[in-house]
Amino acid sequence: MKYFILLITLIFSNSIILKSFPPGWEIVDYTYNRFYWDVDCIDSLNCLAMSLIGSRTDLKKTTDGGKSWKQLLHDTVVYRIPQERQGRYEIICFDFVNENLYYMGADSGIIFKTTDGGLTWEKIKVNTNKQIISINFFNEIDGLCLTSVELLKTNDGGSNWFKVAIPDSFLKSSNPYSTYEFYSFQCPDSNSIKLHYYFGKIYFLISDDGGETWSRSVIPKKGMLSYNFLDRNNGWLVQYYQTSYTDYPNVVMQTTDGGYSWNKILDTLVKIISGLREVYFRNLNEGIACGDNGVFFRTTNGGNKWDYIISWKDDYPPHYRCCIQPSSKTVLIFTDNGYILRYDESTLNANEINFTHQFSISPNPAGEYIEIAFSSPRLKPWVASVDEIKIYNLLGECVLSVAQTFPSVDNGQTGMSDLLR
Fold first, then answer.
1. What are the CA-CA distances from residue 275 to residues 163, 225, 271, 289, 297 (Å)?
2. Are strands 388-392 and 3-7 parallel, antiparallel or unpaired?
């Protein structure tokens, strides 16, 4: 049976309170007291998400594009003395190499490695006693890990590590009280390294030859909260700062020269305690950015135009902490209170029909009711091969259905309260 679906968008001066999730959005997972802070996908189906439950780190994975999630870390991994649940490891970073191979960085120079998709874990001791704060592998054997003061490299899958030399001119000063601190790094390809660190200012240390030579760029004023490099030239960052007591701007900046210069491609003001936390681009055109109080933007043209997307069910959304776009039609958002949201554009599958008959909607502006009248309502069928005409509101709820088997019905009325739900 075919249907003609008329979708009506109405704009009103007062805000609309949604009672269910907007079309395409749903909660796919929830755990009380869980705080998400990182996510990575290797393709459209396989993703990992790291979070904190109370004071314990957890890693979840999906193999179906985010529809379902499985917890990976058990007491034998999380605790030094698992039978007593004592001596918890501070696991704060991970790298998703392939479907079976993952790495996690922990305190005291500990790295955890799995080769069977998280069923079992091997503990590796790196030649440092500091916290591993960031880790990235180019392939199954070559990788880097970072502490607050050193960058280390392996070429045997993590069994042995050696320090990467960085010029003293980037790390030392004549001022004995001036010290540096490494924060994180990304490797867009097998030779490119973008290392985010502080040394009086916020910088990127940049290497395009695997760490043999280095240069430095200053990160734009107002700082940086997160960043995402697609390749060695193209990257994006978000800034988080206040312009007044009530205003936090949503700022996304872009570089096309590897991080040496940056230009704003998004700059808007939002309400108090709001602002972007993360930006992600899956290619040069498709990007997303998320933040506090359900702030979510999406672009499909490289940031020339951004759409503000309503993705929560009411006026009190949680804070979005990280987001990713596994495919062109799906988005995953992770909150600071245990929710995983999933958007699937393919669920919006209303068939388009070339409809040439004229119709009118009245009154305009809308009153308590609106009336939709067709130019020749008593002709059967109204639209060839269509058995029924339905009207849906913006939440995907059918608010009016008129069967063409009743030719005496020449118009249909639906209440505005139905359309606003």
1. 37, 10, 8, 10, 11
2. parallel
The set of residues, in sequence order, having a beta carbon less than 8 Å from that of 369 and lying 6+ positions away, is: 413, 414, 415, 416
Q: For residues 251 and 312, give the distance between their C-alpha atoms in angstroms, rounded to a whole number.
A: 21
| Interval 13-46: pLDDT, tens | 333 344 578 899 999 999 988 999 999 999 999 9
Backbone angles phi, psi at 120, to 5 degrees: -130, 155
Residue 95 CA to residue 104 CA, distance in Å, equals: 6
pTM here?
0.78
Nearest to 169, CA basis, from 130, 136, 213, 131: 213
pLDDT of residue 15: 33
| DSSP code at position 253 | E
CA distance 261 to 2: 54
CA dihedral 118, 120, 126, 131 (to 10 degrees): 50
Count other Cβ atoms within 10 Å, centred on residue 89.
20
Q: Torsion over CA of 59, 63, 64 and 65, rounded to 10 degrees?
A: 60
The count of other CB atoms within 10 Å of the CB of residue 400 is 18
Question: Which residues touch 219 (CB under 8 Å, ≥6 apart)?
Answer: 196, 201, 202, 203, 204, 237, 262
Q: State the alpha helices, DSSP H only, in 228-366.
A: none
Strand, coil or helix: 418:
helix
